[in-house]
Design brief:
This is MarR family transcriptional regulator. This protein has about 160 residues and is mostly helical. The protein has helices at about 20-40, 50-60, 65-70, 75-90, 110-130, 135-155; strands at about 65, 90-95, 105-110.
Length: about 160
Amino acid sequence: MANLQEERPDDGVELGVLTDLAGYHLRRASAAFAADFARVLEGTGMRQVLFGVLSVVAANPDINQGMVGRSLGIQRANMVALINELVELNLVEREVAKDDRRAFALRLSPIGQDILAECIQRIRAHEEEMLSDLAHDERGRLIRLLMRIEAKERS
């Protein structure tokens, strides 16, 4: 492994074994992204999990909430509360699914479409800033590598 010690900011504190642990750096990077994400979406009423649900529903009109939850790794009980919240905020419309009367089909409301579009614009700027030190091909490689790690969780 390359000498990672040289790549971290010099604040005089040695990290010991943490320097070479991917999980440590993933957690720190995730925390940095989450904090900036929250700052960027301030005033929209959106949180990461709600944005994730809106994104999946927008990409899959009439999807049922169980499929949304599975795709995002959200437990069923939590998914019900999230969908209720989005329906109460008039961001998602819910109706009984035509193909399964026990399930609900979800789609974005016009307000949900507007909020999602605004959030996407803000998030794209957020990601551009957070990843500004990476070249375009490095960004793509980073996402592909993270997806490979995510796939391990599902297998």
